[in-house]
Amino acid sequence: MLKSALSASRPLLLCSVWMVLSVVSSCANYEFASYYDGLPFEMENVSRPSIPSLEVCITDFGGIGDGRTLNTDAFAEAVDYLAGMGGGHLVVPQGVWLTGPVTLKDNIDLHITPQAVLLFSSDRSLYPIVETVFEGLDTRRCISPVNADGAKNISITGGGTIDGNGDDWRQVKRSKVTSGQWKSLIAKGGFTDDRNTVWYPDSSSFRGSVVSDAFNVPQGMESDEDWESVKTYLRPVMIGLKNCENVLLEDCLFQNSPCWNIHPLMCRNVIINNISVRNPWYSQNGDGIDIDSCEDVLLINSTFDVGDDAICIKSGKDEDGRRRARPCRNLIVENCTVFHGHGGFVVGSEMSGGVENISVKDCRFLGTDVGLRFKSCRGRGGIVRNIHISDIVMMNIPTEPLLFDLHYGGKSAVEAVEDGGAVYDIAMVEADETTPEFRDIYIKDIICSGASRAMYFNGIPEKNISGIFVEDCEIVSDRGADIRYSDGVTLKNVRIRQSVGEGFVFANCRNVTMTGCRDASSDGTVSVKKYNSSDVTVE
Q1: Which among 463, 51, 435 is positioned nearest to 250, based on CA atoms?
Q2: Residues 346-367: pLDDT tens digits?
Q3: Which of 160, 238, 430, 476 is the most exposed place for a label (fewest CB within 10 A)?
């Protein structure tokens, strides 16, 4: 029960934590103004949520931070109290706070102090199955450990840690762990597939994999009982925010999610500042952040070290995404570092609602499978356009620093390479609303030290990748650029130091202009190979 001291007439400061309420009052004092300098598109200033000054502490609702006591009820009571008071700050002090899901409401800041860990229980019964969107489709998943739906003015701050206890949920591919790690998984029990290549934590997880397509969405679920039978497979996104407005994630560490770490879905006015996101490298679908059908987003000063795509931009998948028709637009990404991930900055593959007006600057990708990754496939639809990327430093990229792939089939770029390269000629199909389109993308000032292939554009004949501008790039790689089914490509001052083969290969391309480009040719010029390509101009 709430202590009597906590009342509407007498709110008390229950934790010795200093809070600062920052509200943007004018453009002159706008703290993020520098990120808008020279922005190549119009975008509203993203402002911090306005949180009332009232503070309460989880301990005053019976919370115990010993890592063993379940605090689900304490968090629910605290949130309800703040909501009834018009909002405020819920302070989580030093300790390990074991809990089930926490649902945020209007005008509430979840303030996790630097010495605090919010640890989510692996008890499946605490996570009801709810209607949501995952992998771009309308479906059901277990509710997110931290969740909100339709909330305004919410934040997670304080510098503490949120841990999703993901190892108790995730299936694991044998190829992604050491022999010792695999033996440890087997010793825990669970199930493996017939080929002993994937471990599942229980029969529910295994059954879910059997009835799901390649993108983790179960098929043929007709009743609540059907969904419950695959519950573990429906592992939750750790931070799930849907239809929210005025959102702040700042200073905290987010780690060990059962699935994607952070998923703002159809949100507006979002700030992600100075956060760290970690998942084990073997974590299946262990994305860093998936910004999905959102508008006016600022992602800055953050680090990612994850098991799947790190910074990923989405807008729905196939018919569900086209019907939803919620593009992801007006997004600034700046001063971010990615240590590991399938892609450093990624658009797709769920982009059926469209993606536009994106600025990415001053980022480092240090060992990601791909650097800049654009992916989709026939059937998606959607237009990706007006993307501006500059000042990116990469090193130790196993595949390509720059990849466009309109034949994405669910595998990582490394796995796709292992399966063999694609053929030059692809049969054309009739373009319609299901045809994806990537165009008007500007990339400059890229440095990459160490890659397998300098660039790979893998387009489709009915709707070529078009209007791609790449300027002032230095790439050291095993092989040169391989550009296919592309129209209107401009390469300016692109230098590729490849170990073997030609610097640039164009297959089924047209309207290509190369100015001031160089490769590893001994005569200081540039080597170009053309296959069924026209209007390739080298200046």
Answers
A1: 51
A2: 999 999 999 999 999 999 999 9
A3: 430
Residue ranges of the alpha helices (H) in 175-281? Answer: 179-187, 203-210, 224-228
What letter represents residue 59's amino acid?
A: T
515 and 464 housed in the same domain:
yes
When pLDDT is cut at 50, 70 and 90, the band that residue 303 belongs to is very high
Query: In sequence order, what are the residues at sequence separation of 6 or more whose Cβ sits closer than 8 angstroms to the Cβ of residue 388?
Result: 40, 41, 358, 359, 360, 442
Nearest-CA neighbor of 248 among 279, 269, 221, 218?
Answer: 269
Q: How far is CA 51 from CA 148, 242, 275, in A?
A: 16, 19, 20
Q: Which amino acid is at 383?
A: I
pLDDT score for 481: 97
- The pLDDT, as a whole number, for residue 412 is 58
Amino acid at residue number 462: E
- The CA angle 358-359-360, to the nearest 5 degrees, is 120
**Residue partners of 153: CB distance under 8 A and separation at least 6:** 49, 50, 51, 87, 106, 107, 108, 245, 246
- 425 and 497, same domain (yes or no): yes
Structural domain tally of the chain? 3
Q: Model-level pTM?
A: 0.93
**Same domain flag for 201 and 149:** no
Contacts of 188 (CB under 8 A, 6+ apart): 201
Instruction: Based on the fold, state whether residues 91 and 188 are members of the same structural domain.
Output: no
pLDDT > 90 fraction of the chain, expressed in percent and rounded: 88
Q: Is the pLDDT of residue 248 over 60?
A: yes
Last residue of a domain, one of 136, 158, 180: 158
pLDDT of 7 over the 60 cut: no
Query: Where in the sequence is the domain holding 177, given as residue range(s)?
Result: 172-232
Instruction: Please tell me the distance from the alpha carbon of residue 316 to that of residue 466, in angstroms, as a whole number.
Output: 22
Same domain as 212, residue 130: no
